[in-house]
């Protein structure tokens, strides 16, 4: 059985949250939307380390995506997922901004 995802909260406020996340080998994230109560949710994901195989981020629509390393998208509007990590770990620095 694969190890659990490890999430460290680096900063948390009403509008901005910053996380450092490690996705281990064998993990995948199925298609989903991130639900919020009110407002708009923007996520800026910075992939610090890509796995050696697998672990690709896929989203219906990105605001921008720079080489699969820096991705800005609306997780509340567009379905997104991460394919199964076949080998290695995926490290992510994630900024989540909620606007009214």
From TrEMBL:
Q: Keywords for this entry?
A: Oxidoreductase
Give its E.C. classification number.
Answer: 1.14.11.-
Molecular function in Gene Ontology: oxidoreductase activity
Domain annotation Prolyl 4-hydroxylase alpha subunit Fe(2+) 2OG dioxygenase: ranges: 20-94
> Which EC main class describes this enzyme?
oxidoreductase
Superkingdom in the source lineage: Bacteria
Task: Look up keyword Oxidoreductase and say if it applies.
Answer: yes
- Name listed for the protein in its UniProt record: 2OG-Fe(II) oxygenase
The uppermost taxa in this organism's lineage are:
Bacteria, Pseudomonadati, Pseudomonadota, Gammaproteobacteria, Pseudomonadales
